[in-house]
Amino acid sequence: xxxxxxxxxxxxxxxxxxxxxxxxxxxGNILQNLMSDGKVSDNSKILFVNDGxxxxxxxxxxxxxHQYSYVTGLKFSRNYGHQNALLAGMSTAVDYSDMIITIxxxxxxxxxxxxxxxxxxxxxxxxxxxxxxxxxxDTVFKRKTALAFYNLMGKLGVKLVPDxxxxxLLSNRATRALLKFKERNLFLRGMVPxxxxxxxxxxxxxxxxxxxxSKYPLNKMIHFALDxxxxxxxxxxHLIMYLGLITVIIxxxxxxxxxxxxxxxxxxxxxxxxxxSIWLLGGIQLISISVIGEYVGKIFxxxxxxxxxxxxxxxxxxxxxAK
Length: 323
Ligand code: UDP
Ligand code: MG
Fold this sequence. Notes:
By secondary structure, this protein is an alpha/beta fold. The protein has helices at residues 20-36, 57-67, 82-93, 113-122, 140-155, 172-179, 188-195, 218-232, 235-263, 271-303, 316-322; strands at residues 7-13, 45-50, 71-76, 99-102, 127-134, 164-171, 199-205, 311-314. It has two domains: 7-216 and 307-322, Spore Coat Polysaccharide Biosynthesis Protein SpsA, Chain A (Alpha-Beta Complex); 235-303. The chain starts with 6 loop residues before the first strand and ends with a helix. The mean pLDDT is 87. It comes from Limosilactobacillus pontis.
């Protein structure tokens, strides 16, 4: 296992044919400079992960990996999502790399932060977060919802590095630690801080997408945010429990009230018992369901043990072994 400063840059791609030529050029330049400066091994690689693209993305990746010795590709059997693509890239690269950088294909994240991240790694940091120092290119809506999301996660006790997404560097041991997390519902930006080790940040300006459309429309974004909440916090279930408790308290008040009314002789017969049982049973049921739900929710996602991705083809390992 060679690990003398080999850098692998993992790039998830889903229908990115429009940006890929520019991505290869820009990130390729950065990598070549790093290699010729001797900062990283000359066996460093770019690893494109094709996440079930429907366009020409994969044939472009194949073409580039024939053309350039430092370009490699991995192909999923279907679309497994951005987070799984990152994970597959990392697990493929971890046996050969001293450091792994993950970056989106669309060049929104400033590629010039890559050498800075490498410098931090050479200074001994295990985790280097890329943090946006401005969100000018995001819409007001995206900025506001992102802020609300980070605030909510903070309140739920989940530690996130604000304004950092999936642009980061991990050392070999930090990657190995991350890969030990076996959860199915991946929310990498919540998991990385749990790994520990010495971490630092590199600031960059987030740009517009170079070409093509965002693969994260609103519904996917909401899904991703909900995933983040439910796989990191059981607060929603606690909320149901409190709801149940409040219902029980109200039912007790109702009980006393109907009892007094009954003693005063103000009620139609039968009303008291119906009122009490509806409220009391309703409350108890809500509490019970929430308690069971707490366990079911935890077991459900874990116990299925479905594979997180299926790799159809990969030429990274072959290229790494060849050297
Ligand atoms: N992506 C992916 N699989 C998906 C969706 C997106 O691999 O199912 C990749 C996409 O190609 C890009 C990155 O994830 O490299 C981030 O996606 P995008 O730029 O569309 O998200 P945004 O920046 O708009 O949040
Ligand atoms: Mg993007």
